[in-house]
Predict the structure.
Amino acid sequence: MIVAQRKKIPEIFDSIQDHKSVLVLGCGTCVTVCLAGGEREVSIISSALRIASRKAGKKIKVNEFTIERQCDNVFIEGATEEIKKNDAVLSLGCGAGVQAIAERYPETPVYAGLDTAFLGILESRGVWAEKCMQCGECVLSDFGGICPVTRCAKHMLNGPCGGSREDRCEIRADQPCAWQLIYKRLKNIDQVDKISKEHPIKDWSKSINGGSRTIIREDHRI
Amino acid sequence: MNDKAFEPKIIAFCCHYCAYASADLAGSMRLQYPSGVRIIRTPCTGRLEVEYYMRAFENGADGVLVAGCLEGGCHFIEGNLFAKKRVNAIRDILQESGIEKERLRMVNISAAMATTLATVINEMVNTIKELGPNPIRKTNNGTDVEFWESIPPGKEFEILNSQQ
Ligand code: SF4
Ligand code: SF4
């Protein structure tokens, strides 16, 4: 899932303060699961903004609405009526959601209420961890399902770097060495010989470094 | 608003199994606490949605007190521990929004600690007196938040569920 977190209230308030009415728009998918931009967070952030607005001597009307998915036109349409009733939208979707709303409503100012952080998983209650940086050419099959591109601080495909101490990464002592994890995992699944396979230099042009990406499926186009 | 005559309006969420019982006991013992404190009984402080705290302040409360069981003594094992973490998170959001975090406080009280409850309430009232009225009441010259007075006893919860 996409993992995001709430921006601080003063920053959000600063972006919306010149409007008379603002729709705080939640998203019912990834950001609901990572407890950043679902219906509940819409309610809390809206309350905070109403308080901040009155404290600043303003009377901004802050309205609340949540749709199933902000990055999908089919669902966005369900918010049209609410969006039209307000001067601006504060989106609690991920970066893609905010942009989808902005594209769909060219006349309406749209602001971001969240900082979108990464693609990851819920590791334990209240702890989310990054697992994939969408490099565009997945190599997980060679590494026992543990991503060295994302989880090794040096993105090494032919690791380890030799600097790890007590199974910790030498760059980030709070993180395990990805290569240590890969080695253990390959051993467990009886594929440890894969560790000596040489990997050619990665083609980073397939990642975001090659510019923003588009996938076109002719078989699905109309 | 005349600050000298300022009587803080405080919502006290009291857990049915401890603080609410101690409030009952305080009544039987004829212990005094200021009349601006409205007690709302809750099945467990862990049951309290964080939105309630936000709505209380949004609707003009000067302070909110959350009173749960002693740590380790929760009837539902750890509801009060969850409540404590949530209260701390909301204190940060309140501070960011311009409401002093001291206006929201959680305490742990057993059913027998009636005197402690009265002390805690008085402490809270003093803290709020020092801070003055909820700043959003001040900036509105007390006009549109006067409705606090109009909340019929027992209807506090409905108000908390509504947005202004
Ligand atoms: S190899 Fe690339 S696509 Fe696969 S998990 Fe790692 S970053 Fe993601
Ligand atoms: S210690 Fe491990 S994870 Fe850290 S940079 Fe070296 S190989 Fe990568």
